[in-house]
Amino acid sequence: MKIKIILFISLLSAMISPLYSQSKKLKTDINITGHVKDKTTGEHIPYATIVLLSVTDENGVKQNSGSQSFGAVSDESGHYMITNLPEGTLTFKASFIGYEPMTASIKTSMGNTSILHFQLDPSQTDLEEVVVTGNRYATKKRETASIVSVVSPKMFENTMAKCPADILDFQPGLRVEYDCGNCGVPQLRINGLSGQYTQMLLDSRPIFSSLGMVYGLEQLPAAMIERVEVVRGGGSALFGSNAIGGTVNIITKEPTSSLIQLSNQSVFLGKGSSDINTSLNGSIVSDDYKTGVYLFSMMRDRSVYDRNDDGYSELPQINNKTMGFRAYRKIGQSSKLTAEFHAIDEFRRGGDNLENPPHEASLAEQIEHSIYGGGINYDYLSKNLRNSFNIYSSAQNIDRKSYFGTNMNLDAYGKTDDITFNAGAQWIHRFENLWFMPASFTAGTDYTYNSLTDKMLGYNRTIDQKTNLVGVYAQNEWSTKKASVLIGGRLDKHSMIDNPIFSPRATLRFALNDNITLRSGYAMGYRAPQVYDEDLHVGAVGGEVSLIEVSDNLKPENSNSLNLSLDYWKQMGHWQANFLIEGFYTDLSDVFVLVENGRDSQNNLLYLRENGKGAKVYGLNFETRIAHGDKINIQGGYTLQRSRYKYDFKWSENVNAQRKMFNSPDNYGYFTFDFKPVSPLTLSLNSVITGKMIMQHAAGAIEADKDETTSGFCDISFRAAYDFKLSGKVNFTLSAAIRNIFDQYQPDLDYGMNKDSKYFYGPQLPRCFSIGGKLSF
């Protein structure tokens, strides 16, 4: 361990040392100013990048900008200014996401300010899409060292997604499952690993605590989300504990223009049940584009759904009210202050006799959440675009009132208080050349504090856990369009682990030609021995409750992850095709497992979280996309994998020991097809495919504990939407859809109050119909 850290620090020192030898710019009085516009619409483009490529002197000698780098980023109004430029004929390049770059030249002279405007053509492809999660800074998706999948606002709309839980199935290697037939707790699995192996971020900040992860995927409304970025594989070197299976980064919307939007989506589930979602959103941007605010709000009202008419719910009642904002203030030309706030008030109830208090029901799970969270972020970019600095702070408070009980138990009420605080700083320096090619050096530190108090006095359970995580990280990426090499690491001190943990990371990217890119990577990761979201959920089994305890001797779980991928892009006129094949392998040591651990003094069933000997998960992800401008968009992904313990694992005395991991199918995938036959009409067909898997089925509705092999599912949905242009800036979109057309649903649901609430699988929604409308002005 010490040798690894010493080697890493030595390499770090060698990378930093060239900073002190860089020359200083000479002050001149030569300035360039102008704007960047969309060539088609004439609208200004904010945040476009303008850089100096070369300088030609009066003798016709051309030189690259070299170490004397000049550039700027256009402000919110699409204007820019670059000062103290050299004399001569200067060639600049302007670029922005979704546009073809443009170059232009201008002759300068001492003491003069010149005007240079750019008009960018919209790109018909998304090859230049920029992501932030792969490296902790903005990078073109095609040039990232790691594969980064992006869920766009258009995909949210075309798949009728109300929240992240509805959309993440439509990415390769990802699968959302609902683990409770009473309260509908969602869980995201990445590359076969359960949700506890996934690091969830909000605007790149880890404010999702163990409690926040229990229902968090369903609580954030689509109205506040700009996009979701997903990185599969180990990410502890970037984001610390728990980023073993992958990282999901939810990026919130930022205002770009003044608008108001009112929308409603009503889903009719059958059996008298419905799910009504209404949102009102708006943004205001000042005339000088220096200040902007985006406001969002959402109300959701879902009634309970009982599939088998036994009087006990399969889908819980949900009442959710969410509101918040994201705002920015541009401070000068090179710095910006951003703030975000969200408030969520949610009630959910499952079981029977929902019209009565929970203690008057035979089986009830009732949870009330009050969530308040937000953050503030300061960004600074130097005038030469070489250095950027970021300082941030985020916090979230969750107040949960719960009831998890059976047989009209008056003592099953509980209360949970959870506070998470995160703060840190990051610095990036971009080298014109470091040893052998251009490079970007990133260093930072962050601190995360969590205080969790969970009291269920009727079950004699009190959890009082406080954790502190201090991390420092650094990485250097040598990168050109042709190739990149990234080496980095993170050193964490977790308050529940005696010794610091070092998590290294290395990636390699090589473009064989303009169409084919190879990538490979290695990363180490870890999970701390603490309470996780699964431990804070109380299940109902056989008319009783089941509780999870954490072993006093629980050790950290560690991982080693490898991946290798081939990415093929092809542009043929207006057609674009992309094919990806990715192999992954994750080796887990001291893996966390749950085993039956007898009963407590009240005869409640106990499970113990302890360390197993290890596990391994490996497989292949396939992804394809074919697009013709905005007329046709076809996407699909499929995963073939194996998830196995390294030893014979036995969760109950009534089952045979085996090595296959539970709730982890060997194959699953998705498909989407969007077609615009005419400009106002969009037709969307999508499907989620889930293969067979093995699940634990606890005794209650059945006589004895049993391992069950489930059936497979193919959930197909169709949506049609038509845009009406009512006036200059007023638009109305009308949509209708049928979801789960063939009514694929779990065929062997347990009946009655003795059911095993965790024995729940397959599509969450039955065949249902929806209608929606969106008014924008």
Structure description:
The chain is mainly β and 777 residues long. The chain contains five helices and 46 strands. The strands form eight sheets. The chain has a 22-stranded antiparallel beta barrel. Strands 2, 3, 4, 6 and 7 form a five-stranded antiparallel beta sheet that branches. Strands 1, 5, 8 and 9 form a four-stranded mixed beta sheet that branches. A hairpin with a 6-residue loop joins strand 6 and strand 7. The longest helix is centred in the N-terminal third of the chain and has 15 residues, at 2-16. The chain is globular, with a radius of gyration of 27 Å. 44% of the residues are buried.
Which secondary-structure class do the elements indicate?
mainly beta
Radius of gyration: 27 Å
Instruction: Please report the total strand number as a whole number.
Output: 46
What is the count of helical runs? 5
Overall morphology? globular
Low-confidence stretches: 14-25
Strand content: over 45%
Return the average pLDDT rounded to an integer.
Answer: 86
Distance between termini?
59 Å
Helicity, as a percent range: under 10%
Main pleated-sheet profile = 22 strands, antiparallel, barrel
